[in-house]
Amino acid sequence: MKKKSYSGYIIGGIIFIVGIFLIVTYNALVKKDEKVKLQWNEVQNTYQRRLDLIPNLVNIVKGGAGYEQATLQKIIEARAKAASVNVSGNISAEKFNQQSALQDELAGAANRLMITVEKYPDLKGTKAFSDLQVQLEGTERRIKVARKDFNGSIADYNSSVKSFPTKMVSGVFGFLPREGFQSGMGTDKAVEIKF
User: Fold this and answer.
1) Among 27, 19, 18, which residue's Cα sits nearest to residue 170?
2) What's the distance, CA 167 to chain centroid?
3) Most CB within 10 Å of its CB: which of 55, 80, 115, 161?
4) In the chain, what is the greatest distance between 2 CA atoms, to the nearest angstrom?
5) Angle, nearest 10°, between helix axes 166-173 and 7-64?
6) For residues 195, 131, 128 and 126, what is the CA-based torsion angle, rounded to 10 degrees?
7) CA angle 160, 166, 167 (to 5 degrees)
8) For residues 113 and 116, what is the distance between their CA atoms, to the nearest angstrom?
9) pLDDT (tens digit, 0 to 9) for every residue of the chain, 195 residues total?
10) pTM here?
């Protein structure tokens, strides 16, 4: 009687299972990486909305009040700086942090404008200003939600990249952990507003 050798089948089965694992894991990492990129694009979209609304606010304020030119100039400059940084394709930490800081500077300038404009009741009462103020507030909420969703997709991606056995596959194919949004220095302190 001939003994059958099953070792070839066993080795082939193991190679097949490992191959399936590699394919499934790689595809899952690609999907999570694409989700991170999609969420980043949504953050970029909300930043662009802010950039588009700021000139309208400045024009309404210019037209409605003899307003401090220095404040308007700061907003115009902050908008120009924020618009100058383009983060597309691969998201580098340096570009990411640079754009985040510039967008935060722009938001701060716009918020100072909104607070200071409260001193001008005629301007505050105009329908155009009120509508634009609502749009800006909505945009800031959208940015907050987009950043939160981006951080969520980063956390999901990072947990996959760092967990075993996916970590072995991510290391082989170059899927590295990423950073999400973090609050800036001093944001834990209340902002003092003086008139």
Assistant:
1) 27
2) 25
3) 161
4) 105
5) 70
6) -50
7) 90
8) 5
9) 456 678 888 999 999 999 999 999 999 999 999 998 888 888 888 888 887 777 777 676 666 555 555 666 677 777 777 777 666 656 666 777 777 777 777 777 777 666 666 666 555 556 666 777 777 788 888 888 888 898 889 889 988 898 888 888 888 888 888 887 776 665 555 545 343
10) 0.59
Of 162, 163, 159, 172, the C-alpha closest to 35 is 159
Tokens, residue 82: 């924020």
Both tokens of 46, joined, read: 């909300």
Q: DSSP letter at 191?
A: P
Would you give the distance in Å from CA 144 to the centre of its chain? 9
145-151: long-range contacts (C-beta < 8 A, 24 or more apart)?
A: 146/39, 146/42, 146/43, 146/45, 146/46, 147/43, 147/181, 149/39, 149/42, 150/36, 150/39, 150/40, 150/42, 150/43, 150/180, 150/181, 151/180, 151/181
The DSSP letter of residue 90 is S
CA nearest neighbour of 131 among 29, 55, 57: 57
The contacts of residue 53 (CB under 8 Å, 6+ apart) are 132, 135, 136, 139
* Helix boundaries (H) for the chain: 7-64, 69-84, 93-117, 121-125, 127-162, 166-173
